Amino acid sequence: MPGDVVLLEAGNQVPADLRLIEIAQLKVDESALTGESVTVDKHTGVLVGAVHALGDRLNMAFKGTMATHGRGRGLVVATGMATELGKVAGLLEQNIERSTPLQLRLAAFGKRVALAVLAICAVILLVGLLRGEPPLQMVLVAVSLAVAAIPEALPAVVTVLLALGARRMVAVHALIRRLPSVETLGSVTYICSDKTGTLTENRMRAECLFAGDGPAWLPGPALPGPLYAELLRAVALCNDARPAPGGGWQGDPTETALADVAATAGLDKAALDLEWPRLQELPFDADRKRMTTLHRSLQGDVAYTKGAPESVIPLCNAYWRAHGSVSIDQRAWLARADALAAQGLRVLAVARRSYDQLPEAGGEIAVLESDLCLIGLVGLIDPPRPEAAAAVRECMTAGITPVMITGDHPATARAIALRLGIVDNAQAPVLTGADLTALDEETLRARVQRVRIYARVDPAQKIRIVEALQAQGEFVAMTGDGVNDAPALKRADIGVAMGKGGTDVAREAASLVLLDDNFATIVKAVREGRRIYDNIRKFVRYAMTGNSGEIWTIFLAPMLMLPIPLLPIHILWVNLVTDGLPGLALAAEPAEPGIMRRPPRPPDEGLFANGLWQHILGVGLLIGGLCLGVQAWALSMGQAHWQTMVFTVLTLSQMAHVLAIRSETVSLWRLGLGTNKPLLGAVLLTFALQMATIYVPILNPIFKTQPLSIGELALCLAASAVVWAAVEVEKAWRRRSMFPDGAATADAPTS
Ligand code: ATP
User: Which of 17, 41, 56, 194 is catalytic?
Assistant: First the structure.
């Protein structure tokens, strides 16, 4: 209850949001809430200033965090959903799961087809009864036709296809957390990606340092004077990097780069840490964009601050020179930092402040980070990932707009975006976090499709970018790694979290996890998603055309004054052997040529767009026509085996069909039979089973079949082959309309 007093000891989970009233060396691990791995020293003093980020509210202990050291006593100020943790949970809750386009389409489709099939079966039953057929047989035929033709297995097969797809995606380092995302990946029109670590390697290196009046120093073993010695001491001390067991450094890449440059110039960080022990610290956080550490030495106490130039330089009223500090021209220094950022460097400003008398333990931010003396600037390079530029190009040809969202400086972001090809000119618009705050929703929506770079953005602002894009009808994939990214990841159509870096909370909220944290992997996943959706459509094309063939056969027979062509067992058998294995084997189909050269599929595009309906009805009619043609011919020739022949044509023509629809454009002889071995196996197995129903004597009475002569079997095979030929003609026509320049033939399909 608010007002209760809670005692905290090391190891306790904080049970509610507490205002601390008494502490003894209390340290709290707030990583679950803020993403910061460093434990935070708490105090009971009053915070100065109006707004404080969570990580800066040092006189509070928040629900869900953990006391790791010392003890304390706090007054409950909020419980349950009113706590800071509850607010994050609330944000996640608001974003109700959106049903995926395919789920919606399948549900709607299933209902409509079921109604249509029931109506047709009722007509068949009625016509049969009117023609004087035996009522029981007619009821059985109508019911078995309904069972066969209602696509009840469709959602289950689609789930299996998605699961097989998800398994394949792991091979390209994309881990699917929500199955339907496999399919929706194909609809992505925007990929909003973090810069550091996803588009870049996150392997930073100090490129140049700047102290005093210059000139800049390019890192190396020889130090150019005491100003740079102070700059390097500052970056070595105000730094949490630790020596890695196998050599080098471990920790935040920005800091390991700084530890590295200090070591290269001959500074021993371990010795410095002993000589200048750390008394206090204000850890780095993405809101303040700086950190401060306070050290004691024989020469006195000194605080070092490093961070983004625009967050550190305004706190400086002097700059450090060999003969003492002089007053600072903040604008000139900010311009110098901008010039470095424009070269694509991440720039840090480094400052110090000496103390004759130490600020009180747990000193306020405002005290520790004021009246600073600027020592200099460090420019760090974080090279773009080598494969990122190609992935960006692939995005563009696939009609997907890549967008960079970063906590870094606008100029740094623009330079890297230019290098990657995300923008093509140095004047490309950049929206900053401050701009975002100033824009209302409507203005943001109007501008969002023109902006490809967002800089100095807080993770909490990402959700506004997602929502604005979605309001413009875009289908958005968004990356994120921190706790604060979780609501945006949840809100995005495809939330993408990092597998190597990043927090569990972000991974929980995401539908896709990049095992290698790499932008190119998102593009690979999109490509895979498109392939899987194509294969789902192929499955629907195959299964529904078969069903339509069965319906046409039974429906048209009475109109053509032919006897009921099939018995219930035939209908059920055809349904059993054709729908299962061959349909599933379509999951192994390689990607269509030009799969990443066509625009994203509109998320609201019907499953039956682009001629699928026509194909199902037309080719189904052809199958029905062939069955009935064979039936009529056999009856006219007085063949006693007419029913077995119809039964065989119905099964084999579906095998011919499944081979023909393996690609929407490439002909079977170009594809080669061996490029989908599971399907070839399934077709051969189905053929063998069908032959068994005809030629294995004990099965004849069960299936009411008779062995066919070679001539009759040859006729059945020839009739079935007509379906394959007809679909090849359809594909040739489609090829011509989709690739008038013959691109499809130039392109080999890829798996
Ligand atoms: P992205 O959003 O592209 O992944 P990022 O998450 O690395 O970028 P932040 O970590 O929020 O961005 O960093 C923002 C800014 O804070 C940096 O541009 C840099 O100026 C500063 N900064 C980053 N790391 C540190 C650090 N360890 N100490 C001090 N300042 C830092």
Answer: 194
